[in-house]
Design goal:
Elements: H1 2-15, E1 22-27, E2 33-39, E3 45-49, H2 60-68, E4 72-76, H3 93-106, E5 112-117, H4 119-128, E6 135-139, E7 144-145, E8 148-149, H5 150-154, E9 161-166, H6 170-182, E10 187-192, H7 207-219
Parallel strand pairs: 3-4, 3-5, 5-6, 6-9, 9-10
Antiparallel strand pairs: 1-2, 2-4, 7-8
């Protein structure tokens, strides 16, 4: 009887689906310890990168929506933000994002998309230019920000890209135009009315259009 119970427990462990909404430890490529939240049970991966004045919670609601739509989603705090260790240092957050990307690969989750808002979008373009990704999407990404240079990186992108910004968020809109002009890979440029910046685009009057663009991009067949 004991053996039967043990075998049943082993079979259950093998076939049980991945745990949803799991708090995880992530190591940046330079060793800084970060904290993230992994959601979803199966499907491609999406790594979300947050804004300069925010933390991973700004992505929680949309990440949950995508997890329910068949993705494995990872939000995380950059160094010095939220639950993560280290001190704030924008010039090195690409190491955090690459560490998060490698964490997802380590969980055997493929393919992987990078989605970033504001400085997280800038970091996403920098990282996507040097690692294989299924696609990269940005909300209000800057061309350059405190040591991160997305304008130089975007010309090296080989993955499809989506650039979203508000028309009256002038710097972000100009950067989105610049990115779209520089990239040779398939790209989509979406400019919406208003001044909302970063993940505020997910909550403002243009939220439906922005979310629709993100979902369309993330669910499109690979070119």
């Amino acid at each position: 009887m004991t053996r039967i119970i043990a075998v049943a427990a082993l079979l259950l462990a093998v076939v049980a689906p991945a745990v949803a909404d799991e708090r995880v430890q992530i190591t940046a490529t330079d060793g800084v310890q970060l904290v993230g939240h992994l959601d979803g049970r199966e499907g491609p991966g999406i790594v979300f990168a947050h804004t300069y004045r925010g933390d991973q919670r700004s992505w929680t609601a949309f990440a949950a929506e995508m997890a329910q739509s068949g993705f494995r989603t990872l939000t995380f705090d950059f160094r010095g933000y939220g639950e993560s260790g280290g001190g704030k240092d924008v010039a090195t957050i690409d190491r955090d994002l690459e560490g998060a990307y490698r964490f997802v690969l380590g969980r055997k989750i493929r393919p992987v998309y990078l989605v970033g808002a504001s400085m997280g979008g800038t970091a996403a373009l920098v990282v996507a230019a040097r690692v294989p990704v299924a696609g990269v999407a940005t909300l209000s990404a800057s061309a350059a920000f405190q040591g991160l240079d997305a304008a130089a990186a975007v010309a090296k992108l080989s993955a499809p890209a989506l650039f979203v910004a508000a028309e009256s968020d002038t710097a972000a809109a100009d950067a989105a135009h610049e990115f779209a002009a520089r990239i040779a890979a398939p790209k989509t440029l979406l400019l919406v009315p208003g001044t909302d910046h970063g993940t505020a685009l997910l909550d403002g009057p243009q939220s439906a259009a922005v979310k629709r663009a993100l979902r369309t991009f993330l669910t499109a067949p690979s070119p």
